[in-house]
Every structure is written in C-alpha cells, then in structure tokens.
Amino acid sequence: MSDLSPRIPEDIADDVLRVASELYSQAQNSYDVSDLKAAGQEVDIPPELIEKAIAQVQEQRRLEAETREIAQANQRKMTLIGAGLGALALLWGISSYNSLNVASQKVDGTWAQVENQLQRRADLIPKLVNVTKAQSKNEKEVIQLLLKSRDSYLKAQTPQEKLNASEKIDTALQRFDKVAASSSLVSSQAYTNLQYEIAGTENRIATERKRYNDSITLYNQKVNAFPNSIVATFTGMKPKEFFKPTNTKDPKIDL
C-alpha cells in the first residue's frame, strides 16, 4: 500500500518545524475571548468592557506597528539618501582630484621643457670654453667660472636647485661676455656662432618659463579654490613656486 501523504523536501523541513514551534508557542501563550470574559467576571468586570479593552489594545498595537513601519521606511529612505550623497561626494572627490592631477602633470610637462632649454644652455658652455684661448688671467678665471657654474647645474637634483644653479650660469655668461668684448674673441666666427646659439637658447628659456609660470598659476588657482582645497589638503597637493630669481644680486660662485 503506497503512502499518499504529501512529502516535505528535506531542505525546508527544519524551517517547517521552526515555524510550527513558534505557532504552538503563540497558541500556548494566548487566550480565547471567552476566557478573558470569564476572568473578568471573577473580578466584577463586565464582558462588554473586556471586548472594548481588547479592541483598544489591538488598535494600539496596530498603531505601534504602523509607527514602526513608518520609522523603518524613513530609516531606509535616509540610508538611501545618505548612500546617494556619499556616492556623489565620492564622484566629486574623484573628479576634483583628477582635475588637480591633470593641472599638476601640466606643470611637470612645462617644467620639462624649461629644463631641456636650461640643459641645452649648460651644454653650450664646453663649446664656449673650447673657442677661448685663455691667454689672459681674466680669460682663465672666467673659464673656471663657466665650468664651475655648469658643474653646479649638473649636480642639481630638484627644480629649485636647478633654478639656483641656472642663475650662476647667467652670472658666469654675463662676466664672460664682458671679458670677451675686450679680447680677440669678438672677431672669431666660432664665438659669434655660439653667441647666436646662446641668445636663441635664452629666448627659448624665456618662452618656456612663461608657459611654466602660466601652468603654475592655473594649478595654484585650482589648489586654493574651495572646495578643491579640501581634496588638495587630503591628497597632499600644495601650491607650487613660480620660476623667478631667488635674489636680485649676482649669485656668488666660488672658484
């Protein structure tokens, strides 16, 4: 004889037993209305008051349940709003950081062009030394000055160190021009050609310096402007220095 009773899958059996246990517990801890009326009669409470009390309690519980549901719904709504605002803040932060990073990279790119021209000018110094016969004491001293200033530039590591060393090259070239003006170098074609190269390099340095300073102006505006300044503070981005002389006097070069 086959068993025709329904079969319960094993994977839900535990849940069925748990729910049944909860229902049984609720049944054991509940009362019939007639039981409540009978209990009320023992203390002289009219049955109609028992029914009224039951209605009031049930209504109170219903209102409490509605209040809880509303509170939970509001909580879920606030959570969603908070998550949305957090996502917007994150997207804004990423956008601001990207904007600052692009501006910073532009500064680095324009500095590279400045550095190329500074390096080119430094590389012209050995050629300038080669066309100088260095027969007089002044010529020998100014050659040492040129080589010393170039060596200072080649050893510089940071942009500011390179700018400081570049000022020494400026000073050395100015002194060299004064010595050359009173020597036979002024009639040398090789010297004249080098002077043209140096002058052209100086013009390119001036051009690239302006571009560099313009890019720093844009970057610093972004860093200092609110609310980008908040992102800049957290990411460690600071305003950058412009390319300008550190002093108005000729740098001292020890021979």
Structure, explained:
- By secondary structure, the protein is mainly alpha-helical.
- The chain has a domain at 105-235: Up-down Bundle (de novo design (two linked rop proteins)).
- 78% of the residues lie in helices and 0% in strands.
- It is built from 7 helices and no strands.
- The radius of gyration is 44 Å and the shape is rod-shaped.
- It starts with 9 loop residues before the first helix and ends in a 20-residue tail after the last helix.
- The relative contact order is 0.09.
CATH architectural arrangement of one domain: Up-down Bundle
Ends: how far apart? 118 Å
- Output the radius of gyration: 44 Å
| CATH topology name of one domain | de novo design (two linked rop proteins)
CATH uppermost class of one domain:
Mainly Alpha
Helix content: over 70%
List the helices and strands in order: HHHHHHH
* Fourth-tier CATH superfamily name of one domain: LemA-like domain
Biggest β-sheet strands, sense, barrel: none
Question: Would you tell me the structural class of the helices and strands?
Answer: mainly alpha
* Approximate strand percentage: under 5%
Number of helical stretches of at least 4 residues? 7
Oligomer: single chain
Task: Count every beta strand, where a strand is a DSSP E run of 2 or more residues.
Answer: 0
Mean pLDDT: 80
Unreliable spans: 247-255
Looking at the structure, what is the overall shape? rod-shaped
